[in-house]
């Protein structure tokens, strides 16, 4: 491991797992599966119920930047305790409304800007004349 990778893993959490997470996962984690993005999903060994939480602890180690929107719908249901069995062990039927992953574009030029936003290419909708400003004392 080169120095840059070492320092990144030691000091940051958003570029994959930290050393602390790696040690915790090695001691307490059981690999459950991996999704199409290379994210790896874990739970407490043997499906043990965590005394602190009252349920089985589950977590994800992201492949690359930690971006929660990169969890596919079928894994989202498992990681949030909606279903008991992870996707590889149960048949997942994609819903018609499931969309392919798009990264979170907030803060980028590709971010959604609603009509009327001052950031929407400097275009504002034409005034309709139905607005009356409030005046104190009226």
Automatic annotation (TrEMBL):
One of its GO terms (biological process) is response to oxidative stress. This is NADH:ubiquinone oxidoreductase subunit NDUFA12. NCBIfam families: PRK08183.1. One of its GO terms (cellular component) is respiratory chain complex I. Signal peptide: none annotated. It holds the Pfam family NDUFA12. InterPro entries: NDUFA12 (IPR007763). Residues 89-138 are annotated as: Disordered.
